[in-house]
C-alpha cells in the first residue's frame, strides 16, 4: 500500500479525485471526507497495493501531479510494532514519561533502566551532594572493541527547571526503545558513548518539590545557616566571579565562595576533566527561553571554533523547528542573553571540549518554569 | 539615542491570541527609555493593524459567575507545581497576566526582562458597585538577575470598563528558611 500526497489545482481535479475516492473506496487520511477536498489543500490518500498502478495512471491521465508520501505502509506498521513490543521489554512498565517525577522515583527509574537494559546501560557513581545525596550518571554504551568518543549531557542544574530532568529521562527512554530499529540511533551508538546525568542539582530539585517550587540553586548553607544556595551554573572555574554574578548568598546568581566550592560542581568537573580527551560534546539542559547557546557568557570574544559551533547549532535549531514549528534562537550567551561567568558550558569548552552547548527548552515565558505536563512530550520529541 | 532624553526603540511585532493561536494582529510600537531616573516607566506608543477578537460572551459568563458566588473567591498557586490551571481558574489567571503586564511595564528598564511566574494567592474583595476586585500576590521572574520577586497588586475589572491596577507594591522575599 502507498500513501500519495496530492495538491489539487483546479475544481475539475478536485471533482475527479472525489470521484476516484468514492468509486475505488480509497482510504482518505487527510482530509477525512471527500467533501472536504479543496483546490490548494493537502490531500493524503492511502491506496491499496493492487490499485496503486491504476490510480497513478488515472492521475497521470488527468494531469494531476502527486508525490509518494509513504512508499510502503506495511513496512512502517512493522517498524512501529517492533517498537511497541520491544518497548514493553526494555523500559520500566508503567513509568510515565509525560509526567514530572520526584527524586525518589528518578532513583528507582535509574535502577530499573539499568536492570532491563543491562547490555547497554550501566549506572555509575559520580559524587555526593552537600546534603549527602548520591549523584549517579547513566552510561549508554554498545559493547565494541574500539574506544568511542563521548557525548555528555546533564539536566537539572537549576532546581526549578523541571522540564530538564524530564527531558533526560525521555532521551534515555527513546534511545533504548529505538536503538535496534532506528538506523540513525544504531549508527550513533556504534561510534559514540552517551553519558547522561538526569539530575545535577539533586538537593535543589527535592527542595523545589517539597518546599519552594521556584528554587534555583543548590542547598549549601552560608552565613551560619542564615542563607542557602549557590548557583551551580556560576560556580565553575571559567572566569569565575567576574561578571553576571553576585557575591551575596541571598542572590539567585550567587557564585559560591570560590570556583568549584560546591560538591556537586566538583563531582561533575573532576569526572569531565578526567575524561576530557575523549569527550566530543558537552550538553547542558535548562529552561526556559528556547535557545541553543554557545560559549561564551563571560566575554563576547568568540571561541576558536565559533563557525563550526554555530553551524551545528543552527542545524539543530532547524531540525527542532521541523517537528512542531517551535523556534529556537541560536548564539553566544553574552550576545543574545546576558553576561555570566562560571557556567559549566564555558568551562567545558575552555578545557578543550570542542562542542559545548546550553539548551534552554520551552517555553518563552508564558508558563516559564512551570511548564504543564502536556508539553513534556512535544518538547522532548522536538528536542530529540 | 536621543540626546538628553533617553533611548527610543522602534518595534514591529505580531500579537498572538493566547486562546486562539491562529489569530494574530500586526502591531508597531515605539518605546522610549528615559535617561537617568530609572523610576519612571518607559513611554509606550503603539498602533494595532487590525482588530482584537471580541470576547464579550466569555467576559460576561465569567463576570456573572463571580458575581453569583456566595463566598468571595480565594485560591492559591496558579498554576500548580506541575503547571496545571483548572478551567475555573483560567480567567483568574488571564486577569493576573494582563494586570501583571501593567506592573511589569511600570518597572521595566533596558536591563530587565520580567515574566509572570505564578499567582501565589488571590482573594476576591467584595464591592458594592458593579466592578470585580481581586487582591493578588504574584511572583515575577526577572531573567537577568534570575530573581523571583513577590508583588502585591489590587486589580479591578468589568466587562465593559476593562482592567485597572489600582494599587501595587513590591514585597520583600520571605525570610530565609
From TrEMBL, chain A:
<keyword id="KW-1003">Cell membrane</keyword>
<keyword id="KW-0472">Membrane</keyword>
<dbReference type="Pfam" id="PF02244">
    <property type="entry name" value="Propep_M14"/>
</dbReference>
<dbReference type="GO" id="GO:0005615">
    <property type="term" value="C:extracellular space"/>
</dbReference>
<keyword id="KW-1015">Disulfide bond</keyword>
<keyword id="KW-0862">Zinc</keyword>
<dbReference type="GO" id="GO:0006508">
    <property type="term" value="P:proteolysis"/>
</dbReference>
<protein>
    <recommendedName>
        <fullName>Carboxypeptidase O</fullName>
    </recommendedName>
</protein>
<dbReference type="GO" id="GO:0098552">
    <property type="term" value="C:side of membrane"/>
</dbReference>
<keyword id="KW-0732">Signal</keyword>
<keyword id="KW-0336">GPI-anchor</keyword>
<dbReference type="GO" id="GO:0008270">
    <property type="term" value="F:zinc ion binding"/>
</dbReference>
<dbReference type="Pfam" id="PF00246">
    <property type="entry name" value="Peptidase_M14"/>
</dbReference>
<dbReference type="InterPro" id="IPR057246">
    <property type="entry name" value="CARBOXYPEPT_ZN_1"/>
</dbReference>
<keyword id="KW-0479">Metal-binding</keyword>
<keyword id="KW-0645">Protease</keyword>
<comment type="similarity">
    <text>Belongs to the peptidase M14 family.</text>
</comment>
<keyword id="KW-0378">Hydrolase</keyword>
<comment type="function">
    <text>Carboxypeptidase which preferentially cleaves C-terminal acidic residues from peptides and proteins. Can also cleave C-terminal hydrophobic amino acids, with a preference for small residues over large residues.</text>
</comment>
<keyword id="KW-0449">Lipoprotein</keyword>
<keyword id="KW-0325">Glycoprotein</keyword>
<dbReference type="GO" id="GO:0016324">
    <property type="term" value="C:apical plasma membrane"/>
</dbReference>
Automatic annotation (TrEMBL), chain B:
<feature type="domain" description="Cystatin LXN-type">
    <location>
        <begin position="74"/>
        <end position="177"/>
    </location>
</feature>
<dbReference type="Pfam" id="PF06907">
    <property type="entry name" value="LXN"/>
</dbReference>
<dbReference type="GO" id="GO:0008191">
    <property type="term" value="F:metalloendopeptidase inhibitor activity"/>
</dbReference>
<comment type="similarity">
    <text>Belongs to the protease inhibitor I47 (latexin) family.</text>
</comment>
<dbReference type="InterPro" id="IPR009684">
    <property type="entry name" value="Latexin"/>
</dbReference>
<keyword id="KW-0646">Protease inhibitor</keyword>
<feature type="domain" description="Cystatin LXN-type">
    <location>
        <begin position="1"/>
        <end position="54"/>
    </location>
</feature>
<dbReference type="InterPro" id="IPR049897">
    <property type="entry name" value="CYSTATIN_LXN"/>
</dbReference>
<dbReference type="GO" id="GO:0005615">
    <property type="term" value="C:extracellular space"/>
</dbReference>
<protein>
    <submittedName>
        <fullName>LXN protein</fullName>
    </submittedName>
</protein>
<keyword id="KW-0677">Repeat</keyword>
<dbReference type="InterPro" id="IPR046350">
    <property type="entry name" value="Cystatin_sf"/>
</dbReference>
Amino acid at each position: 500500500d502507498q500513501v500519495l500526497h496530492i495538491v489539487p489545482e483546479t475544481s475539475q481535479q478536485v471533482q475527479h479525485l472525489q470521484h476516484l475516492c468514492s468509486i475505488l473506496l480509497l482510504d482518505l487520511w487527510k482530509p477525512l471526507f471527500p467533501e472536504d477536498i479543496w483546490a490548494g489543500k493537502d490531500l493524503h490518500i492511502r491506496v491499496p497495493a493492487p490499485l496503486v498502478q491504476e490510480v497513478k495512471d488515472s492521475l497521470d491521465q488527468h494531469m494531476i501531479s502527486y508525490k509518494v508520501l509513504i512508499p510502503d505502509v506495511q513496512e512502517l506498521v512493522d517498524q512501529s510494532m517492533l517498537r511497541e513490543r520491544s518497548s514493553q521489554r526494555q523500559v520500566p512498565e508503567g513509568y510515565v514519561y509525560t509526567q514530572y517525577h520526584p527524586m525518589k522515583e528518578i532513583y528507582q527509574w535509574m535502577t530499573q533502566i539499568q536492570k532491563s537494559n543491562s547490555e547497554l546501560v550501566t549506572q555509575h557513581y559520580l559524587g555526593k551532594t552537600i546534603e549527602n545525596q548520591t549523584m549517579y550518571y547513566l552510561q549508554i554504551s554498545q559493547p565494541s572493541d574500539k574506544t568511542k568518543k563521548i557525548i555528555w549531557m546533564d539536566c537539572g542544574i537549576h532546581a526549578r527547571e523541571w522540564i530538564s530532568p524530564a527531558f533526560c529521562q525521555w532521551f534515555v527512554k527513546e534511545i533504548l526503545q529505538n536503538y535496534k530499529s532506528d538506523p540513525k540511533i544504531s549508527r550513533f551508538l556504534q561510534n559514540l558513548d552517551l553519558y547522561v546525568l538526569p539530575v545535577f542539582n539533586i538537593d535543589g530539585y527535592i527542595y523545589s518539590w517539597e518546599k519552594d517550587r521556584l528554587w534555583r540553586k543548590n542547598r549549601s548553607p552560608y552565613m551560619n545557616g542564615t542563607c542557602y544556595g549557590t548557583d551551580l551554573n556560576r560556580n565553575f572555574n571559567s572566569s569565575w566571579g567576574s561578571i553576571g554574578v553576585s557575591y551575596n548568598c541571598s542572590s539567585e546568581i550567587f557564585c559560591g565562595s570560590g570556583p568549584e566550592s560546591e560538591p556537586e560542581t566538583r563531582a561533575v568537573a573532576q569526572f569531565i576533566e578526567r575524561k576530557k580527551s575523549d569527550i566530543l560534546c558537552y550538553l547542558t539542559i535548562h529552561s526556559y527561553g528556547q535557545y541553543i547557546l554557545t560559549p561564551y557568557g563571560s566575554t563576547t570574544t568568540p571561541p576558536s571554533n565559533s563557525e563550526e559551533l554555530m553551524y551545528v547549532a543552527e542545524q539543530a535549531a532547524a531540525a527542532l523547528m521541523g517537528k512542531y514549528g517551535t523556534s529556537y534562537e541560536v548564539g553566544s550567551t553574552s550576545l543574545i542573553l546576558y553576561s555570566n561567568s562560571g557556567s559549566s558550558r564555558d568551562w567545558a569548552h575552555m578545557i578543550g571540549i570542542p562542542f559545548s552547548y546550553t539548551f534552554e527548552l520551552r517555553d518563552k515565558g508564558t508558563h516559564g518554569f512551570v511548564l504543564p505536563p502536556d508539553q513534556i512530550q512535544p518538547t522532548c520529541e522536538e528536542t530529540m | 539615542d536621543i540626546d538628553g532624553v533617553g533611548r527610543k526603540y522602534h518595534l514591529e511585532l505580531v500579537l498572538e491570541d493566547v486562546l486562539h493561536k491562529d489569530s494574530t494582529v500586526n502591531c508597531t510600537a515605539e518605546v522610549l527609555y528615559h535617561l537617568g531616573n530609572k523610576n519612571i516607566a518607559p513611554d509606550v506608543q503603539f498602533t494595532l493593524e487590525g482588530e482584537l477578537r471580541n470576547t464579550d460572551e466569555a467576559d460576561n459568563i465569567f463576570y456573572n459567575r463571580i458575581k453569583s458566588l456566595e463566598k468571595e473567591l480565594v485560591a492559591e498557586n496558579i498554576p500548580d507545581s506541575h503547571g496545571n490551571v483548572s478551567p475555573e481558574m483560567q480567567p483568574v489567571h488571564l486577569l493576573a497576566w494582563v494586570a501583571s503586564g501593567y506592573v511589569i511595564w511600570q518597572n521595566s528598564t533596558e536591563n530587565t526582562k520580567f515574566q509572570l511566574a505564578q499567582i501565589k494567592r488571590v482573594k476576591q474583595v467584595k464591592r458594592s458597585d458593579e466592578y470585580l476586585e481581586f487582591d493578588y500576590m504574584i511572583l515575577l521572574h526577572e531573567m537577568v538577575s534570575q530573581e523571583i520577586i513577590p508583588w502585591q497588586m489590587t486589580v479591578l475589572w468589568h466587562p465593559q470598563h476593562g482592567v485597572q491596577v489600582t494599587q501595587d507594591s513590591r514585597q520583600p522575599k520571605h525570610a530565609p528558611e
